[in-house]
Amino acid sequence: GVIFPYHPRLGRYTLNFHEAQRACLEQDGILASHEQLHQAWLEGMDWCNAGWLQDGSVQYPISRPRERCGRKDTPVGVRNYGYRHKESEHYDAFCFTSNLNGKVYFLKTFRKLSYSEAVQACKNNGAAVAKVGQLYAAWKIQLLDRCEAGWLEDGSIRYPIVNPRARCGGREPGVRNLGFPDKKYKLFGVYCFKPAGGTPPARR
Questions:
Q1: Average pLDDT of 76-85?
Q2: Which of 99, 141, 190, 197 is the most buried (most CB within 10 A)?
Q3: Local structure of 167: helix, strand or coil
Q4: How many helices (H) and strands (E) in the chain?
Q5: By residue range, what is the domain housing residue 60?
């Protein structure tokens, strides 16, 4: 499986525990466990924003200590804020996904698309706009590598890089995140998801 840090369009540190649970589910994941986050850290994960985990604790993994992430002279490891108040405190989420029952792909289109055009384009292709968890799973499991920014279902723009190269966002593999642009006026490509064995259920 794969862990992905998540925050919504509203910005960082806006989710209480229950909202974090819901956000992960909406992106085709669940809140990660401490063991899963620790494993991701062992594999090199370095993330400077604290997020909720399944047990109600708030943690973040640091592989490269630096001043703005709890000081440079602190040891590497998974930093732990302990158990926090589930209603009143707000952080990001660490989500986990382990299965991809279908295929994520970058849809070839003649021109770049607004968000609503992207939704329609995937639909016309018998698919749906991919969720964040689906793109991470495709990157990790299907080794999807595409140096083109595309819409995802939550309105964010991301792209998956397995083989890092200079013009594709740096030296580390990973899913690049360009944030949440204006859905109407900003134009990008789109990542679609087609479930195994058929068309996706209609969105209610």
A1: 93
A2: 190
A3: helix
A4: 4, 12
A5: 2-96
